Amino acid sequence: TKTLHNFLKQKLQLMSKLPSDPLIIQYETFLNEKLRGDLERLGQQLDYNYKEITEYLELQIMLNKTREFEDEGYKTRVDLGSNFYARAVTGPVGSIMVCVGLGVFVEMKRCEALKFIERKIGLLEEMVTELKKNSAKVKANIKIVLGILRELQFGSNKQDC
Q: What is the pTM of this model?
């Protein structure tokens, strides 16, 4: 019963320490508001960049597939949305309009568009790499803060020699 009494006493001390320690509250606030918010924003930026890469890759594939029909045109189906398709016939394709960012479209020849797409994909991949590094840093900071909180709340499990 003495052991149980000591155990319960320690638990009560820990429980009374948790909500009132301003340092713990400060770390929890920093963790929940700053670090987790940063991680969520980085995740959203990663998703956006992956979407952009996918769209440019699709355009690149389409340009490569339609290369043989450049002079005479071709028949295709166009997605109108919600998996609604319409038949389309194109004429000879001399140039295409490519979105270069910020809603700006530039008319380019096929070879110019392919070069632009390769550069744009490269830049987006560099951005993804940087975002992944930043995400890893934020995750490491979250682990550090969680370790500090665990230490503050439950004390060190290590015994001093």
A: 0.70
